[in-house]
Amino acid sequence: MAKELKFVMLLDCYGEMLTEHQRNLMELYYCEDLSLAEIANPMGITRQAVRDIIKRTESILLNCEEKLGFAELLRSMRRCFENIDAAADSIADCTVRNTIKNEVSNGMKLL
Q: With helix as H, strand as E and coil as C, how does the chain read?
């Protein structure tokens, strides 16, 4: 993957704090994997303008994460759920194992 997944996660966590324009450009660049030119041309702006907005928005997202830490918290919670799920495999009682795995699955959906 050429573009960084961390900005997709940060966009998920903090995207509502951005302007609609910033969020749209970031989604096109990181989620839709469009090039700067593919974003700029239909909008009637330069590639450099798109790049500048993306760089400023990346900085905003990184600053939000530095101050709030929600994305790291979500990553940590996901790792915990994965560890619980893996540990549940060693439980002999099928009912208990399936209950734990179902709850882990429900928890992962909430993340």
A: CCCCHHHHHHHHHHHHHCCHHHHHHHHHHHHCCCCHHHHHHHHCCCHHHHHHHHHHHHHHHHHHHHHHCHHHHHHHHHHHHHHHHHHHCCCCCHHHHHHHHHHHHHHHHHC
Residue 101's contacts (CB-CB under 8 Å, 6 or more residues apart) are 85, 88
| Residue 57: φ, ψ to 5° | -70, -40
pLDDT of residue 3: 61
As averages over each run of 10 residues, the pLDDT of the chain (111 residues) reads 79 96 96 96 96 98 96 94 96 95 93 80
